[in-house]
Amino acid sequence: MKIVIVGPGAMGCLFAAFLSKSQQEVWLLDKNKERTEKINQAGIIIEGVSGNWQAKVKVTVDAEEIGQVGLIIIAVKSYDTKEAISQARALITDNTRVLTLQNGIGNIQIISEVVGNEKVIGGATNQGATLLDAGHIRHAGRGETVIGRIDGKIPVELRSIRELFNKAGLETRISRDIKGLLWSKLIINVGINALTAITGLNNGRLVEFEGTRRILREAVTEAIRIAKRKRIKLIYDDPLAKVEAVCEATGPNVSSMLQDVLRKKRTEIDFINGVIVRQAQELGIPVPANSMLVDLVKTIEASYNLAVEK
């Protein structure tokens, strides 16, 4: 199976490196020519929990150079999903499947509009990765990857992808309720990402301070209320306790949204807390904590290029 990973960020490079251990042909598809040349020359450099090692994969900005493929993995930021799947469209045949391993809610729908529902696989991963430089990744933590179709079906190709990932060292299982899983992960991100981006705190410190812990609980409680109204079954018996446990378990981690803010990059706030705000508006439910978090993160983004007045 020829595999293309769209987006050579932290997670894209991590999966490309592991999948390169398989007998499959692995490509990275990028939109940045300078970064492409650098990764082609040096390969992907991994350090961290899986050791220090390198992987050679093919990287290009031209989808036509790759040809038709069996699996496309979308690993870009959520706001780039439409551009990414449009760039990869030339690779798709009737037998191609597209897997999203992105944060937030809405990516499956965006991809489906381009390729059709039957080709799309939803996914979530608990692998931890931090981008140190182009093609240079810190593997911060091992974790399970879960994949599945929105309709709950488990066709042969889904099992094949699971087996391929497991053989490459990426622990993977299939879920019949990928929507519930994605919403469960969304609720964890709702509690952690925006607050870390605003305060500059590592994950674990959010539960050390009374103020951040209170806001975390309010934001998560609002998100749980929305999920219940939408009759989405969350995978945790006590989602709020789970979010606080994740903070503690990933204590030193710098969240992806805080990494974006530190680099003065656009965040995925619209696909995380912004989802809760939009859903709440449709349902007529007030979500003041999430609304405040969205406003504050967007203010930080808007301030990047403003000169500081003295």
Explain how this protein is built.
- 43% of the residues lie in helices and 17% in strands.
- The protein is an alpha/beta fold and 310 residues long.
- The protein has 2 domains: 2-175, NAD(P)-binding Rossmann-like Domain (Rossmann fold, 3-Layer(aba) Sandwich); 180-302, N-(1-d-carboxylethyl)-l-norvaline Dehydrogenase, domain 2.
- The chain has an 8-stranded mixed β-sheet with strand order 5-2-1-6-7-8-11-12, sandwiched between helices.
- Helix 5 (156-167) links the parallel strand 11 and strand 12 (172-174).
- It is globular and about 50 Å long.
Helix and strand arrangement:
Blueprint: E1 2-6, H1 10-19, E2 25-29, H2 33-42, E3 44-48, E4 53-55, E5 58-60, E6 71-74, H3 81-87, E7 97-100, H4 107-115, E8 120-125, E9 128-133, E10 136-141, E11 145-148, H5 156-167, E12 172-174, H6 178-199, H7 210-229, H8 239-249, H9 256-262, H10 273-283, H11 288-302
Parallel strand pairs: 1-2, 1-6, 2-5, 3-10, 6-7, 7-8, 11-12
Antiparallel strand pairs: 3-4, 8-11, 9-10
Helix pairs in contact: 3-4, 6-7, 6-8, 6-9, 6-11, 7-10, 10-11
